[in-house]
Amino acid sequence: MGTGSSFQRGHDEDDVLGEEYSSSQGVIKRIPIEVKPRGRLGLRSVRSLGKPKGGSLRSALSIDLENPEVEKIRKDFEMYRLNKENEHANNQKKVQKLETENKRLRAELQTLQKMCHKLRDERDAAIEAEHQALVRAAAFESDRDKIQRQFKIFRETKESELQNLLKARRDLESKLFKVAGHGILDDTESTSKVDASIVGSNPGDWWTALESEPSMGSTTQLHIPVSYRGPELGHTLLEMEGPYLNVNKDDWTAAAASLATIFPAIPESLQTNIIRVFISSPSDTLEERDIFMQEYGPKLSRLCKTEGHFYLPVYMPCQEGDNFAEQERYIHARCHQIDQSSIFLAFLADQTELYTQNDYNLGYVKNPGTKTAIFCFRPSRRDKELPAEVSNLRKQVKESAGAKIIEDYTSPLEAAEQVFIEMEKIIKFELGVDTKEADSGEKLLELDGPSALCGGCLWDINLDYEQMESLTFAGRSTCELGFEKYYDRLSAHVAAPGPLPPLLVSGPAGSGRSLLLAKWIGLQQHKASNMIILYHFVGSPSSCSAEPLIMIRRLTQQLMQQVTSPPALTCDPLRLVEEFPKWLERVSSKTPGGVVLVLDSIDRLQNAESHLKWLLDPLPVDTRVIISVQDNTCPSSWKFWPVVHLEELSNKNIKELLHAELASLGKSMSQDEEMRLLTHCRTPATSYPLYVILIATDIARCNSDEVITHIDSFLETKDAVEVFKKLLYNIRTEYECDGCKGLLKNVLHLILASRNGVSESELMYLCPDITWNNWAPLCDALLDRYILTYRSGLLVFAHQQGREAAMEMFITDSDGSQLRAAREKLIRFFCDNKMGRCGELIALWQYIGMERSAMAMVYYDACKNMEAMVGQSSDPVMLTRVADVYEALGRYLRDLAMLNEALMPLQRALEIREATLDPDHPSVAQSLHQVAGIHAQQSKFTTAELLYKQAMEIYEGAFGKDHFLVAKELEALSVLYQKQGKHKLAESLRKRAINIRKHSRIPRVTCGYIHGADVLKKRVLQLEQLTVGPNSADLARTLNEIGVLYYLQNNIEVAESLFKKCLEMREAVLGPDSDEVAQSLNNLAALYNDKKQFEKAEPLYMRAVEIRRKLYSDNHPSVAAVEKHLAMLYKKMNQLSKAEPLYKHAVNVRESSFGTNHPSVATALVNLAVLYSQQGKYALAEPLYERALKIYEESFGTSHSRVAETLRNLARLKYDMDEFEVAASLYKRATEIRENGATYPNKATSPRTCTCDESFMLNRNQMM
């Protein structure tokens, strides 16, 4: 068998037996058993047993197996084997379980795969259905466009036919009048048609003439409510006795709205909203100047910011040097800053500097009345004589009376304080800020709510400033550029009969589109005074002017100013876009010349097509829209409109433009230089106005020896962008010195990163290293080269090409990090200063992704923080002001249909007012009304009813039961009851409200434009007091005009005081029997008449009649007008016997003026007959009625409304005379005339469809 040494051991066997067997002399034979148990058998014990020599291995092992330890090992092995078997069984079960789970998952996977296939099929089917729907939609849109075009053709055809019919009708009427031989129509009749059409078409939108008297037959005899004015149509107070002759209240409305119309001829210094203060201060007044600028400058800045203006102090230290060019630029910039400043402030002590005398000459001495000036002279020491130049300056200032001089102070701090006091007064005067706070009750009557927070109307004045400056800048060119043919096209489009689609003015960038529109607007504003022209010039695509909603909101506000008492403007963007076309149609239909809407660069608007879908629909008949776009960015849906395409300039036009621009700057060009430029300007990009103007402007401002160099550099450019780059490069090279390297780059970075531009005061804060000595010359260069311009006090790029050039030159990184850094700097600044625009609120919250409810909570928390600050800061915050802010927030949220969120601030406003004011204060009633409105919209009718009743009780206690605010609560309760089905109760309240409004004086003016006119008139009054003295005829006239403005605003007390002061001044200056005194007497009497103080009005009217009878004949219209008002007064006082001779005299006056058979005579006869009827003198009244009826039938025909009205009056008379059958027949005839379409005044025909004569008569009638 072999020895044990013949067995080969592997490496694994050493691990089992260990190292002890390596030295043993026994024989080891491999045993075929499992390895792992073999290690546990403890074979080490075998070595300790005696092994017989020569014995077999089997016998040796048999001895070991009989050992008790072996049994133990066997048992362990059995247990180990059983464990392994159990583990194996368990593993088998797990395998079976996993196989089962695998089968289940496979089944589910197959199910999901089937479902996925099904969804894919459905998706494919949906895509196919969508495609088919799009095809059908495209076909529908095509059919719709086709139908619209057909409809427009049909409408234009019918419009033309209508014009022919109207013309034929006018020809027949004129022939009838010629045949009848009655001469011209009564002006009052024509006036009645226009006024009645306005009132009848939309009651409550237009003022009726002050003290206009309806026919007494229609009001006291038959008591039949009619929507037109009756026969009594004589001149009214404001027609003959107002501040302007022949101006009635409708004309006052138009005049107030026209305050927003800005003509390009207005100087820029009057348009800017920057209060620029130039400070002249030698070095020895450093202490006074520093105290004023550091301590009081921020206060003045807050004052100006509150009124929407920028406060900009300009201080340029004296600069001397050897560089002649730099010194010349410094002097020019210093003079320009003084010229542009609103206020000149000078500190002077014991010495002057190089430019002090020049500052005084430009700022005040040479033109003492053109600029407001404040001089702070340090008191001179008695032991020290002042230098001659200082003494002369002080003497010159004191001899020029009018400047404010401060010289009585003991310390620099006191001097700075006195300067601040005077400066605050001047700035408040400039901004029209009242120093006297109005009583809360007066505010409530004037504005009816927290609208005072926005100046009486919710409009952003900055937008109007911006558009006003855009119009002026766009039309700045001195050359017409052959635009006459384009003017004719635009004017023809406006004059053509409507409706018409918008007119498209197209052309590439720099082709003069904005210039054309600005020039045309200026021409139309001068020629067509009866036309409303609204315009909007879009700036950069990122600015507010490129926000469609802001544009629509501003235009809607301007349209709303054309109606009396307009409703609150909505804040909801969807409603805003929806209501704008309705306002266009409403205003244009009532305006003689219609509405013209001019939109420039409209393709820069953000999402223009989605917000201007109303342009694709048929426009109102009296509305014309003119828009300008670039050729390459015009939307495809607009290309079907009529187009005016701007062509390149011819050589002749380029030459004219060059000479005109150079001549305007006092420069000229040689023939050789001119030929070089004309030769270069042959390509389309170099033949447009902007390219030529930029080159001419730069050449005019460079030295004569540099002209050739500049022309050569411009000859290398291909378009306006490259010209702007050349200009920027030249400016940077010329104006940046060692101390201001990178200034131009930093400034342009901020302007590029901003949305609407950056003001100069903001630049001074954001760039601490900037000084006026290096900024003023650089700014002038940028403005003169048309690189930058001002928009609402902010520096912006004047042209889009200039912006592109700045981007290419100064934005050198590709990742935009430079712009981001500048934008972050602006964000930090604006967050610290809390600046922004009210009109951007919705867009702001949408931009940052915050929901409306979260936005409401942010504002509510801000209001709570404001409330917590009451009494804590140095600037006191009144709780009543906090309540106004809460209410403004609530109304804002309510307008956004966020009723639950709106209820919280409105409720808090109510709580504050109840706690701080008297519980019966009208402001509490106002809050109750707002809260009740929320509950009513939430269908909580019981709560709303209680709140409305509580508000009505407060108003009744404060103002009486016949106040218009009581009527407002009654109307609200009527609507509430109507919703609950309580119709009888609702009807009774509505009738009571109508009755109150008929007899109460409702505030006629609640818009911001009249408020602005009020401020302007007060400023004129103060200026006249300074120039002409305390008493003068001109000053009295201004007092009368301001009194009329306050009268229109229902501020009766102030108007009364002004009328009295005007009367006293006219009596003292012009004498007691002058016509102006009679005018003041008449106005004051009208005011007392309106206040129902008839006993005070009667002697004033009588005295006015006496004065005018002395000055004019008894039959003069001025005498008749006052007598008419006096007769109306007697009628109100029920003193009919005193009114009778006045009405008789009115008949005689009209007979002598118009003849015995004129309709105006019939009007006077009817009024006298009605008076006789009221007195019971039926026998005297009957022939007057019959005579008036005959005149009306001969003048207007037997089916006219005047005939029907006279028949009804006569029927009433016969009824009172117990002649019932005659009364019935007369009344039947009157009813038949009315049912058969009597010519009651209807809406006037569109002015664009009238002939020249008819348009003239229409305009004339509306001004009478």
UniProtKB/TrEMBL annotation:
The chain's coiled-coil residues are 81-129
Checking Pfam families in the record gives:
NPHP3 (PF25022), NPHP3_hel (PF24884), TPR_10 (PF13374), TPR_12 (PF13424), TPR_NPHP3 (PF24885)
Domain Nephrocystin-3 TPR-repeats region, first and last residues per copy: 818-1026
Residues of the region (Disordered) are: 1-23
Domain Nephrocystin-3 alpha-beta residues, every copy: 272-432
Q: Which UniProt keywords apply?
A: Coiled coil, Repeat, TPR repeat, Wnt signaling pathway
List residue spans for each TPR repeat: 1036-1069, 1078-1111, 1162-1195, 1204-1237
Q: Which domain of life is it from?
A: Eukaryota
Has keyword Ubl conjugation?
Answer: no
The Nephrocystin 3 helical domain, residue ranges: 652-805
GO terms, biological process:
Wnt signaling pathway
Give the protein's recorded name.
Nephrocystin-3
What is the protein's species of origin? Paralvinella palmiformis
